[in-house]
UniProtKB/TrEMBL annotation, chain A:
TM region positions: 7-27, 39-59, 65-87
Lineage: Bacteria, Pseudomonadati, Pseudomonadota, Betaproteobacteria, Nitrosomonadales
Keyword tags: Membrane, Transmembrane, Transmembrane helix
MF GO annotations: sodium:proton antiporter activity
Listed name of the protein: Monovalent cation/H(+) antiporter subunit G
Pfam families given in the database record: PhaG_MnhG_YufB
Organism (species): Candidatus Methylophosphatis roskildensis
TrEMBL record, chain B:
Major place of residence: membrane
Recorded topology in the membrane: Multi-pass membrane protein
Keywords linked to the UniProt accession: Cell membrane, Membrane, Transmembrane, Transmembrane helix
Taxonomic classification: Bacteria, Pseudomonadati, Pseudomonadota, Betaproteobacteria, Nitrosomonadales
Family indicated by similarity: Belongs to the CPA3 antiporters (TC 2.A.63) subunit E family.
One GO MF term: monoatomic cation transmembrane transporter activity
Identification of the protein by name: Na+/H+ antiporter subunit E
Organism encoding this protein: Candidatus Methylophosphatis roskildensis
GO cellular component terms listed in the entry, alphabetical order: plasma membrane
Length: 109, 158
């Protein structure tokens, strides 16, 4: 049983690490600020979520698990607010997103 | 009053779980500060349906798991776009009218859109959302979406 939980925990940790790396690759590949934010959101939803889940499985039913749950809730409420503030500030300061229609040469990679 | 009691109880539980010490002094200090914070919140007039929406907690139990699955699905889609050598993105801005009537409902909807990878709420006003999507289909999927209907059901009657 303990071995099974360990395996599940490691799968979560490795998958979380994988999605964090994918988000980082996306951060580099995307062409502009707004599309980069989409790539970053893979890291802080699925990446961080899976790492937290893996750590919770490691912690078992302890106070440490409760703290990890609080951490997850904090990210669940704070990260969309921060992302929204960032995007709104960028648009308000006149940063125009590259849009599909205006930009047929968006095949750049 | 019910909000004050509920907020004090939540804060006290939060204190106990974070501290993990159960000595008489520390528990009493925690109880005292929880009640004090609830009183301050009352004095600041933020202790109401909007600031402490306990009436939503039951419905959150059905909405959050659904949202979690949506987040996983769209994170997977965005990951595939990122790893695709051609980088098939078509960034699009869409404006649409959300159907929620309460502030808590609108904020929940806007946050849910931002939380799912591939879409970000850039502007959230009462009658109109401006959403930036990584792909055209993803952005247009936000208009009159399943999420919109579910959040409206989640907020209940205003």
């Amino acid at each position: 049983m303990a071995g099974l939980v360990d395996i599940a925990s490691w799968i979560c940790l490795v998958a979380g690490g994988f999605f964090s790396i994918v988000g980082t690759i996306g951060l580099n590949r995307m062409p502009d600020f707004f599309t980069r934010m989409h790539a970053a959101s893979v890291t802080d939803t699925l990446g961080a979520g899976l790492v937290l889940l893996g750590l919770m499985l490691q912690a078992g039913w302890t106070l440490v698990m409760v703290k990890l749950v609080f951490l997850g809730l904090l990210m669940f409420f704070a990260s969309p607010a921060a992302a929204h503030a960032l995007a709104k500030a960028a648009l308000a300061r006149g940063l125009k997103p590259r849009l599909h229609e205006e930009d047929p040469s968006s095949k750049r990679s | 009053m019910i909000y004050g009691l509920s907020l004090s109880a939540c804060l006290f539980a939060f204190w106990l779980l974070l501290s993990g010490y159960f000595e008489a002094f520390l528990v009493a200090a925690g109880a005292g500060s929880s009640v004090a914070v609830a009183l301050f919140a009352h004095r600041m007039k933020v202790l109401d349906r909007e600031g402490h929406p306990i009436h939503l907690s039951l419905r959150a139990l059905t909405y959050w798991p659904w949202l979690g699955i949506e987040i996983i699905k769209s994170a997977w889609n965005v990951s595939r776009i990122i790893l695709d050598p051609k980088l098939p993105i078509s960034p699009t801005l869409v404006r649409f009218k959300p159907s929620q009537r309460t502030i808590v409902g609108l904020v929940t909807h806007a946050n849910s859109i931002t939380l799912t990878p591939g879409t970000i709420t850039v502007e959230a006003n009462e009658g109109e959302f401006l959403v930036h999507g990584l792909t055209k289909t993803g952005a247009q999927g936000c208009i009159d979406s399943e999420m919109d209907r579910r959040v409206t059901r989640f907020e209940g009657r205003a």
